[in-house]
Design brief:
This protein is α/β, with parallel strands linked by helices. Helices cover 44% and strands 21% of the residues. The longest helix is centred in the last third of the chain and has 16 residues.
Length: 200
Amino acid sequence: MLFIISGPSGCGKSTLVQRVIKKVDNLQFSVSHTTRDKRKSEKEGKDYYFVSKSEFKQMIDDDRMVEWTLFHGHYYGTSRREIEKKGAGDTLLLDIDVNGAEQIKSKLKKAVFIFILPPSFEELKRRLEARGPETAVYIEERLDVARKDIRAYPQFDFIVINDDLEKAVRSLECIIHGMRCSLESRKKEIMPILRSFSGD
């Protein structure tokens, strides 16, 4: 089962995903590709797959990316191989921007789409400013994108308001557990039980 976690930059989706993966069994995190430089705190294959621009563009040309975007001169995206490899047996979580979520929705109909909302625009701005040494121009660009991203919320299956981290984590957990109990998800599991009632 594939869960797409999206929302404006600074809404806290990455933190939510990290917390939920620690609390819910059989969850995998989909690692994105990027062409930006690796930060000291980041690990190859855990935070991102770091590749050159020429390699990333070749992946696009070969239709090996299910979604991708270009921001501040750097490419970001999710490969088909990552989804096929990790999503074969376990539940897979994708933490991607709204544009990426829209691309995936046009290709993967069975995914579950979850939109993370900040409690307010002012709080989103505060979180972006508190992240670290980013320029005022960069933050304003992120906020401009956020104003556009917010309009996409009706396209999603679930909404989680991240005003309280623990509450938001519980909400995300509930969505995952609930979808795992859906008829579509349990068809194979319940067939032997149903046959036991048939009298055959």
